[in-house]
Design a protein that fits this description.
single chain; 398 residues; alpha/beta; Aspartate Aminotransferase, domain 1; Aspartate Aminotransferase, domain 2; 2 domains; four-stranded mixed β-sheet; 14 helices; 17 strands; binds pyridoxal-5'-phosphate
Length: 398
Amino acid sequence: MNNAEYIKRTDESLLHVYNRFSVIFDHGEGVYLYDTDEKKYLDFASGIGVMALGYHDKEYTDALKDQVDLLLHTSNLYYHKPLHDAGAAVAAASGMDKVFFTNSGAEAIEGALKTAKKYAYLKHGRKNYEIIAMNHSFHGRTVGSLSVTGNEHYREAFYPLMDGARFADFNDYESVECQVNENTCAILMETIQGEGGIYPADETFLKKIRKLCDDRGILLILDEIQCGVGRSGSMFAFQKYGIRPDILTMAKALGGGVPVGAFAVTEEVADHSLVPGDHGTTYGGNPLVTRAVKTSLDLIAKRKLTDHVTELTPYFERILEDLTQRYDFITGHRGMGFMQGLILTIPVGDVVKKGLEEGIILLSAGNDVLRMLPPLVMEKDGFDEMHEKLIRIFDTFA
Ligand SMILES: Cc1ncc(COP(=O)(O)O)c(C=O)c1O
């Protein structure tokens, strides 16, 4: 079968919910992906923030191969060693106390919402609790996570959604404060908004929200599904702000490429929320994915990848600044660590498409942001290559 036939046949059997680019990837090595014609692509997307260690990392793949031979699945009725190791590793890396493993980011949000509701129910003995979430946020596609996603475009065909979600403006304290009432059980936000256009939380805003939550007995849920696990230059972005959430969600880079997420809570929340029978999942935290979690976190620590991100961020930002100076249609850039966006007045989708022709994988965020989420192992020469490729691409729009 040739490539066009593969694409045609794939589209025949799969539900059309993605507008896929006409590329068939075959394998990856380091920070490059290769298609079936051996064309090489520099990766500035990491499979939407997943492939923190890049592709085909020997220590990572050896650990997974070993686990495939040992044990793949047991159910959550029993213990296994990778579960022990991954639970301890996530708690240590995040500074949270108790962890629940899920199969995706959206499921981590679902668990966080249920935990917050149960906490409020046990603490205050009432029902009908409300969650304050942010406009332009993204928390997932399940009904619960969609209900707290502040983008009507994703929601409009699926009403009625979960009751009790209110929306406020990110980085606007008064807009959040005025939504709080006696039914508020949690405030939910991304520490760095991703899909909404790469907006890091302002330090004063996040600190004031933490205080508001403390003063009013409200839980703070931080969604670090995209910005967590090293991407910001800290293990978790909230660690840069000197605060701690009550509930933290993570996924994507957590498993280095396998489908795994988690929500983690403080001791206080753990002691007053979910109990056996309240929540569960068949696959969540199985031996394969927890071995991947433990291996990824160990390798990120061993290779000092958060330091690496911190050291190379100014280099990355200087390139983005240079591009901003060169082209009228680039109005600025923003981000944190290896999570950066270039703000464009030309169609972002066209730039992403040209990127593939040029051999670089890029992402969009919102309508006007070219989003870059390189693997955490990206080195200076990779950034230089991105710089050259983007100049070639942008020259065609000038
Ligand atoms: C911040 C954030 N939360 C939640 C999700 C949902 O994660 P998943 O696609 O694994 O369900 C995403 C996915 O992009 C995300 O970026």
